[in-house]
Write a structure and sequence with these properties.
With 65 residues, the protein is mainly α. The protein has helices at residues 2-7, 21-30, 37-63.
Length: 65
C-alpha cells in the first residue's frame, strides 16, 4: 500500500516518518488542507527508500536459506 500511494504522489500524501507529522499538519493549515506536489514527492522518496531497505533485508534473509 505504501508504494501504491507513493506512485500516486501528485494526489496522495504517504507519511512513513513520524518526524513529518508536524510539518505536514502545518502545511495543511496554511494551505486550506492541501499538501503540495513537491512535498508529496519528497514524502514518496522516503517511502521508496524505506521499502527498498525492507526489500533488501528480505532478499538477504532469503539468500541465506
Amino acid at each position: 500500500m505504501l508504494r501504491a500511494g507513493a506512485k500516486n504522489y501528485p494526489y496522495v500524501s504517504v507519511i512513513v516518518d513520524p518526524a513529518d507529522y508536524k510539518p505536514i499538519l502545518e502545511e495543511m493549515k496554511k494551505s486550506g488542507g492541501s499538501v503540495s506536489k513537491e512535498t508529496n514527492f519528497r514524502l514518496a522518496k522516503k517511502v521508496y527508500a524505506l521499502t527498498a531497505r525492507y526489500d533488501k533485508m528480505i532478499t538477504d534473509y532469503l539468500a541465506k536459506k
